[in-house]
Amino acid sequence: MISVLYVDDEPDLLDITKLFLERTGEFTVYTALSVNEGFQILNSHPIDAIISDYQMPEKDGIEFLKSFRSLQDKRPFILFTGRGREEIVIEAINSGADFYLQKGGDVKAQFAELALKVRQGVSRYQAEELLRRNHEELQATNQELAASEEELKANFEELSTSREALWESEHRLSDIINFLPDATFAIDAQGTILIWNKAIEEMTGFKAHDMIGKTNYEYAIPFYGERIPILIDYILSGLPHVEHRYFHIQSDGLRISAETNYPKHQGVPMTAWCIASPLFNEKSEIIGAIESIRDITVQKENEENLKKSEELYRSVIENIQDGYYRSDAEGNLILASPSFIRLFGYDSLDEVIHQSIADTFYHEPSHRKIFLKKMENIGYLENEEIMVRKKDGTPFLVGVSSHFYYDQNGKIAGVEGIFRNISTQKQAEKELKEKEEHLEAIIQNSPFGIFTYQLLDDNRLVLTGHNKAADIILGIKCDSYLGETIEDAFPHLLKSGLPDIYKKVAQTGEVITKTEMEYSPDGKLHRIFEVIVFQISKNRIAAFFHDITGTYTHDTH
């Protein structure tokens, strides 16, 4: 069981991290809200590894790390923080942090990575401690051998026992390397393979008993399929032509690390991070070298996918037609699309970045508070109409669709959304409304009687409107017939065939003019109407009629 101390000033994150790590069954997690409380736990509990946040109120994670390392304590220390600035990473590594892990992203992957770093750190620390103790034992043995050389010569049996102890110590050292989590191998000064651990067996499929003792760049075959110098050969001979196969090369004078692409990882290409170091004898002479290899293929693929995702996001933002924006929690603009900048008449984002959205863009800055208050009720707004202003102060109307976005702790981090210029749309709607009102006035004041009908899906023709002239000409109040079928409203029209004619016009769009005779109860001709029927939209018609009785009677005489 690995015992872990986690220091963070956020109680919720302490609880979540403790829950995740202890759920694996590998860890016991002690939590502290401050550095001072963390030191108290370190003094009272056996701790194997420390995890610390960076930004905390009393002492930050770097100060904690420096204080801890000043005690000459080499236990693994992991800085687990939401702050991702490069200078913090550099300071953490320079101050002795074993790993630096940034909060955020996929939660499951984040805590899995954290658990992996703890395991690796503890495993490495324990291995180093065991190596240190073995080294101390070896030094003590050597000193003892030197001090009692004459006595050992006289006592061959005692000497044999000491040699056996030395062999066992070296064997333990070999076992430690064998169980390191990273693929590791070692060679002597002549390039003969001395160690080939289990991790490299699993990575390459090549067994130790087939590799140990081999020379002539045999260790390159599992990765490149041919005998060629690789990173470990830098340590022994500094071969310059190896560089073309490596990138991101770093060196501190002794150790060298780099990334490379292996074409022959069990038939599948692999991207790897490698580090090679020299091996020294007691005279500080280089007697060999050791190299560790870590598969980072998935990590690189994730980085590439993230890069593509960011490029796609950037392309969408740069090409979106509506004005996209994002503000921080204080209401300042932190991101905007080129279309947003153009919408407000600015030349570049630099003119408005980090400026107050209310003061810079709203025609009435106080209206933004009203806008945010509405959004708090449901978390978003859609097509909310707001009066804004351009750079030169010109006001114009926009439709705003926005929502809150949140940080990793679930707190509101700001607002994002789009602005759409609807001034032209609103003007068109106003003009259309005025035209409709003008047309309605013409219809209502026309001397012709006018009825409007709608043909329903079940073939019923329903009266939907009329004008004042229709009431006057017919001498009835037509309001009472609205919503009725033509047959129910005007049953006398059945004999004339007008209902069928009207339905035909509604379906075909044909214009029909017809003369309709109206007779009195005694059978005498009472009135004559001229009716003009035409389609005004799909399945909707208008019927214009006027009394031509006088004209018709005059013509017949």
Question: Helix and strand layout, with pairings?
Answer:
Elements: E1 2-7, H1 11-23, E2 27-32, H2 35-44, E3 49-52, H3 61-70, E4 77-81, H4 86-94, E5 99-102, H5 107-147, H6 149-154, H7 156-178, E6 183-188, E7 193-196, H8 198-204, H9 208-211, H10 221-224, H11 232-237, E8 246-251, E9 256-265, E10 268-280, E11 286-295, H12 297-319, E12 323-328, E13 333-336, H13 338-343, H14 357-361, H15 367-378, E14 380-389, E15 395-406, E16 412-421, H16 423-444, E17 449-455, E18 461-466, H17 468-474, H18 486-489, H19 498-508, E19 512-519, E20 525-537, E21 540-547, H20 549-556
Parallel strand pairs: 1-2, 1-3, 3-4, 4-5
Antiparallel strand pairs: 6-7, 6-11, 8-9, 9-10, 10-11, 12-13, 12-16, 14-15, 15-16, 17-18, 17-21, 19-20, 20-21
Q: Can you give a write-up of this model?
A:
The model has no long low-confidence stretch (mean pLDDT 84). The relative contact order is 0.04. The chain contains 20 helices and 21 strands. It folds into 4 domains: 1-178, Rossmann fold, CATH 3.40.50; 182-319, PAS domain (Beta-Lactamase), CATH 3.30.450; 320-426, Beta-Lactamase; 445-556, PAS domain (Beta-Lactamase, 2-Layer Sandwich). The protein has 557 residues and is of the alpha+beta class. It has a 6-stranded antiparallel β-sheet with strand order 7-6-11-10-9-8. The chain has a 5-stranded parallel β-sheet with strand order 2-1-3-4-5, with helices on both faces. A hairpin with a 2-residue loop joins strand 9 and strand 10.
